[in-house]
Design goal:
183 residues, 19% helix, Barwin-like endoglucanases, 2 helices, six-stranded mixed beta barrel
Length: 183
């Protein structure tokens, strides 16, 4: 190999490794649970560990939020009563991209509140969500519809996902259990 070729080859390897390192660094910032730059947003001064679980109580169901509806060609029929319900599936979370925007219930989404979106649980209602990977549980108030992506079972607020320990991963296997207040 000619001396000049060796230098060019070494420079080529350095450039390729540098490009790969930059690409990996970029993907790390956007990987995990951050869908379309929907990360946690600006650093919050809140101590997330001190945000309490939702407190279940009997609320009147909102008829307009519990009617059959269709998304992406699939029809969903929400439950019209708060009764025992258990489901295992995949949970995801949503954050800054939706913060302050209206939920299906008409309330503003707060990524620091213990809330969730579910395709068929009544609005409003409460559920215990347990990560089958970490064993941690949270109680959330269902106030939104979704998720409608990849067969997921529930979409949790940022803080609920943080408490279950899967924010960086993006999804986790969970059990969702409807809470019947007073039982």
């Amino acid at each position: 190999m000619r001396p000049g070729s060796r230098i060019l080859c070494t420079l080529g390897v350095i450039v390729a490794v540098s490009i790969l390192a930059v690409a990996c660094g970029t993907s790390q910032k956007r990987s995990g649970g951050y869908y379309k730059d929907d990360g946690p947003g600006a650093a919050s001064t809140r101590d997330l560990s001190k945000i309490p679980n939702a407190k279940p109580y009997a609320e009147p169901l909102r008829a307009r939020n519990n009617q059959p509806y269709t998304v992406n060609g699939k029809t969903y029929t929400p439950r019209n009563n708060v009764a025992p319900f258990r489901q295992q599936g995949v949970a995801s979370w949503y954050g800054n991209r939706f913060h302050g925007k209206p939920t299906a219930s008409g309330e503003k989404y707060d990524m620091y509140a213990m809330t969730a979106a579910h395709p068929i649980l009544p609005i409003p209602s409460y559920a215990r969500v347990t990560s089958l990977e970490s064993g941690r549980s949270v109680i959330v108030r269902i106030n939104d519809r979704g998720p409608f992506l990849h067969g997921r079972a529930i979409d949790l607020s940022y803080v609920a996902a943080w408490k279950l320990g899967f924010v960086d991963k993006g999804t986790t296997k969970v059990e969702v259990e409807q809470i019947v207040p007073g039982r």
